Amino acid sequence: MPLEFLRRKPSKSAAAAVPEPAPPPIPEEAVAEEHQLRLTFGAKTSNGVRMQGGPHILAALPSMLDNVAKTAVEVIEPRETTLASASPSIVRTAEALEWLRAHGESSPITRHALYVLESLDAIDPAYDTFACALLDGTVDTSGYPEYASIVGGVAAHWDEATGDLIVRAVVGWGGRGARGDTDRIASRLLGQLLNNILESGESLGLTAHDRPGGTPGGATVTCQHCGYPLVHPRAVYCPKCGMRMLHA
Ligand SMILES: [Zn+2]
């Protein structure tokens, strides 16, 4: 007991001998270290090309990327209606989980393409069938396209009035950077893809690109066959499954 008492006492008196340092002056402005990230995404879509209806045309979509695709073509079916709120936004976890359930098994090239094109509203995976590949540039060591690489292919949906398939060329790119010649290369690739669509032997010619569905916020009906909820009230065919609508 006395030993412990002796050990503590000198340290206390030593600490008391040191004068307290003066508080640092309060700065008028915080010295900020700047953090910034700029992402640049771009996309181009062509007019739609009308194709006579028939399931065999969907199977022919990958061949429309002949001589343009630099990698294997992957075909993405329209998303299941149960995944209606899917979104490639990681902070919206419920939407991101649905997106991963729908597309998590796709290749890095396809996921990059869907992310860019869906963010820009250039395609709508709710009803578009999308045949996709790397079209220009390279991928990184994990297989993801570099920012200046161009991805895309053809997207197709069923025309609500006629039941024809509407196919359009779609290209996109982007990420942490931009390059001067990307836009020009993308235009050339879009032209090649549109040519391939027109020369596929099933074309009925160009059509004004009408996005399916009613006016935003307007009335819609649900498809009796696939459950797609955003069909125009007067649509004859479902844009997602191509089946004839049954109106009451
Ligand atoms: Zn349907």
Defining key terms:
about 250 residues, alpha+beta, 5 helices, binds zinc ion
Explain what the structure shows.
With 248 residues, the protein is an alpha+beta fold. It has 5 helices and 7 strands, in the order αββαβααβββαβ. Strands 1, 2, 3, 4, 5, 6 and 7 form a 7-stranded antiparallel β-sheet that branches. Strand 5 (150-158) and strand 6 (165-175) form a beta hairpin. It is globular, with a radius of gyration of 28 Å. The structure holds zinc ion. Zinc ion binds at residues 223, 225-226, 228, 238, 240-241, 243.
Q: Describe the biggest sheet?
A: 7 strands, antiparallel
Looking at the structure, what is the overall shape?
A: globular
Instruction: Give helix and strand order, one letter per element, not per position.
Output: HEEHEHHEEEHE
Query: In angstroms, what is the radius of gyration?
Result: 28 Å
Mean pLDDT reading: 90
How do the strands and helices of this protein lay out in sequence?
Layout (H helix, E strand, L loop, with lengths): L1 H16 L22 E6 L2 E4 L3 H5 L14 E3 L16 H11 L4 H12 L9 E8 L13 E9 L6 E11 L6 H17 L4 E5 L41
Antiparallel strand pairs: 1-6, 2-6, 2-7, 3-4, 4-5, 5-6
Bound molecules: zinc ion (ZN).
